[in-house]
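User: Design a sequence. Structure:
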């Protein structure tokens, strides 16, 4: 194989690996965001119970105020009872006292129910917090893994860029420019192997005359359809 063709193949090899690195690195921010969203979702399960607890506590405070007011009313009616000037007024106050005491019972029941509900919610909260801690530990570990993998990829990328530059420097100016032109126009692939007498990149069958010329290996030849530089895989030196 022509030395320059071998060099082109090497450069192409670097470019394919670099493109793979870039693709993987491009996925990193999205992957990290996805995990953050999962952590946020797990956190919102905790927050929902905390909110329910806050509401329950507020309802209880409200009920306790109501209770105090009702108890004060019972005292007030009791005092008024002592100064009642008619039997009718007396009976009316007694009825109000009885009604208020019934209401006090209802309020007390409600307070008890709210206390029980708060206990249940505290258990639920502890449970959700535990689940959140477990889940976020796993997810944070995954983020660390992704970041460390990305650092490795970046290092590999730097290495590949250096090696590519050194190899690329071995090409003549004309071939180097041609390579870059085709690479830019053909989705990063400027050099393609021949398979079953076809250009493996665009899959077009090659003329027998062209195949013979490539076999002769006297100069660099391109696919007449996609312009990619062609080579026979069997002619390749061991990598
Ligand atoms: Zn082609």
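Assistant: Done.
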């Amino acid at each position: 194989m022509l030395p320059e063709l071998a060099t082109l193949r090497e450069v192409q090899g670097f470019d394919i690996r670099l493109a793979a690195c870039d693709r993987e690195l491009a996925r990193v921010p999205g992957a990290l965001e996805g995990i953050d969203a999962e952590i946020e979702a797990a956190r919102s399960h905790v927050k929902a119970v905390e909110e329910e607890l806050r509401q329950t506590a507020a309802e209880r405070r409200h009920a306790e105020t109501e209770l105090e007011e009702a108890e004060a009313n019972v005292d007030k009616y009791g005092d008024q009872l002592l100064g009642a000037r008619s039997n009718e007024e007396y009976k009316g106050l007694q009825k109000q006292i009885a009604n208020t005491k019934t209401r006090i019972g209802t309020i007390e029941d409600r307070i008890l129910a709210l206390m029980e509900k708060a206990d249940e919610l505290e258990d639920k909260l502890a449970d959700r917090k535990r689940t959140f801690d477990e889940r976020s530990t796993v997810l944070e570990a995954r983020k660390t893994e992704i970041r460390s993998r990305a650092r490795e990829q970046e290092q590999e990328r730097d290495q590949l860029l250096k090696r590519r530059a050194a190899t690329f420097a071995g090409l003549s100016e004309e071939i180097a420019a041609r390579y870059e032109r085709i690479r830019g126009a053909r989705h990063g692939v400027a050099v393609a192997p021949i398979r079953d007498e076809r250009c493996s990149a665009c899959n077009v069958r090659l003329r027998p005359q062209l195949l013979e010329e490539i076999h002769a290996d006297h100069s660099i030849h391109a696919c007449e359809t996609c312009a990619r530089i062609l080579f026979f895989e069997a002619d390749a030196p061991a990598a």
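The chain has two domains: 14-168, 173-235. The chain has a mean pLDDT of 95.
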